[in-house]
Amino acid sequence: MDLDLIRQLAVPNDTKILLAVVDGLGGLPHPETGRSELQAANTRHLDRLAAESACGLTIPVAHGVTPGSGPGHLALFGYDPLRYTVGRGVLEGLGIDFDLQPQDVAARGNFCTLDDQGRITDRRAGRIDTEQSAALCQVLREIELPGVRLFVEPVREHRFLLVLRPQEAGELSDQLADTDPQREGVPPLAPRALAPEAEATAELVRRFVASARERLDGCQPANGLTLRGFARHPQLPCFPEVFRLRAVAVAVYPMYRGLAKLVGMTVLPTGSTYDDEVETLRQHWDELDFFFIHYKAADSAGEDGDFEAKVAALEAFDQAVPKLRELAPDVLMIAGDHSTPSVLAGHSWHPVPFLLHSKLVRRDEVDAFSESACLRGSLGIFPATEALPLAMAHAQRFSKYGA
Amino acid sequence: MDLDLIRQLAVPNDTKILLAVVDGLGGLPHPETGRSELQAANTRHLDRLAAESACGLTIPVAHGVTPGSGPGHLALFGYDPLRYTVGRGVLEGLGIDFDLQPQDVAARGNFCTLDDQGRITDRRAGRIDTEQSAALCQVLREIELPGVRLFVEPVREHRFLLVLRPQEAGELSDQLADTDPQREGVPPLAPRALAPEAEATAELVRRFVASARERLDGCQPANGLTLRGFARHPQLPCFPEVFRLRAVAVAVYPMYRGLAKLVGMTVLPTGSTYDDEVETLRQHWDELDFFFIHYKAADSAGEDGDFEAKVAALEAFDQAVPKLRELAPDVLMIAGDHSTPSVLAGHSWHPVPFLLHSKLVRRDEVDAFSESACLRGSLGIFPATEALPLAMAHAQRFSKYGA
Which CATH number fits domain A91-232: 1.10.3470, 3.40.50, 3.30.300, 3.30.70? Predict the structure, then answer.
């Protein structure tokens, strides 16, 4: 649903909405048993909740499209992920909790190995460890560029974050082409402006690259670098304003806290476990309207291709479901940002099980929470962007459309 | 899905996709038995395939919209049929294998009967036979118009194709109103430009009509003509480029070969039976990525209102299913361009049974291939335009969207 329509329909109420995201929730059958992770897991709390809820499956972006974490979450927040995009440089910054400012230009960097002709022989510099990477970032941070402040932050292994921050009234552009040629045997591409107004920024990046090249000379295997995904902080419509919800996010991982912050949610400090997250929710329950809580372990196990670990992660989540229900939200959603089938060891395009619990739902015959059970749900297979409008309706926070 | 997004996501792979279209696949229950053609047919190969596949139903154009063959196929090729249109004149040309050039303007013609006041008394000239029609076309072909070459080709019964081809650097417009008033008791409408730049072309058509009128005078019952669907060759995005697939079409009927050619598929010469078509596939299997194969008999029987003949046609198709499976495509889709229920003796708007077979599907409980069985499928009821994006995903030919 268009955010303008949501803005038009949203009305205040004193109801509370809880969106519990299980990252990488959906799966595929194990080739030997024919049962998916959710089917294999003992999730009796989820199953009971499903029996009392309206169930369905969400399509994160579009049929056949495998989303990254950014689009997957934006959709669950009600933002069309094809319309509202977050650049890779910005996501990289969110992922390490870098405090990106509106005027900053961020890019994802890779250390790489160059031969004596300047050609890339390893795009990941042998995946040097994060400590080595941090030492190199320290070296690059000393480069001076006129009119901008430079940040070079280690991310993980060969990855780093480059941020240019204009000083005083300066303005930078993110309309720059990647310097990563995406293959080996050729040199990194020269920094290049994609629009006339980006020429000055391109020149700054050229200076940075040239100076970095000198400073990294001899630092085998990481004697070169590539940059991609130049991006500025996206100006997304403000979630609390659009939905008229005092909204908070509770997440352990920086990327998800960052995404919530991008749409204007308040990010609550929390501990390092899901129990900590739930406790944080509880502490702030009375004063707010909308709560996004993020559970990461299912995705991590799926990404590792570890079927049993994903089953265990889902069972651990299941154990927390009673605590979520104890909060007695008027609307409780259990959703996933995308599927992460263990058999694919990565994200996938498959629709994601979903349930919405509220006293106003039209219940269905679904009495288990799984990919196949949710197919029989009363919500059908629907775009993930519609989850929050459905929640708003069940929370009686939407006015009637038309007379 | 927007073709620009497909273009952005598509990556090369060595997987193969087979789209088997059963023209007019969907049906309606026989009033006496309550069973549709697919339910009445013995389709054990399709049923077994369905049990191993993800099933669903496609909506060809939009809820309630009955598509012609053009929109029905364009949707299955991934093109939004409401955005990408093929004029009737062009479809008529494709149907008789006319080699339409980019600068041509084509129109569908009908011979009709006029009274001595010039009013239409029979819009189809008593459905004169195709031979009579061919003789009249021969007469009209002799008309000379300045700066254009004229083609007048018989189609079937009272129908013909008119093509104006500009000579040298000339350019024609297809912004012309139909001359067919769609009713009897009034004269044909005068050719009329719908845009200023079409005035010159309208004048040429006026001359053609006036000269035709003289030459047909006395040729009862076909002493007049009407023209409609003026159209130029549509410039559609190139399928092989958008999807990064080396794509071929195998079809007996010219219309379907023509549609495939319009989107840039290579059309393979083949014999006159479905067995010939399958054999053609087999011969070219190794060298290509995407294969569209067309089965016509189900639609023909449905159009004739012959329930039993449609049942037989579906059973004959079923016999060929093992040969399709022997090719071992990574993704096999069985789809229809629209429904052609025998009880309607024509195309209809009803969603069309669909299955997608691949090792990456989420299987469902569907173990028969029919309108009602597919309702329980894991793909749900979805736009036909999404079939090919789904195939691309299952063939692992789509990159991730966003980070």
Answer: 3.30.70
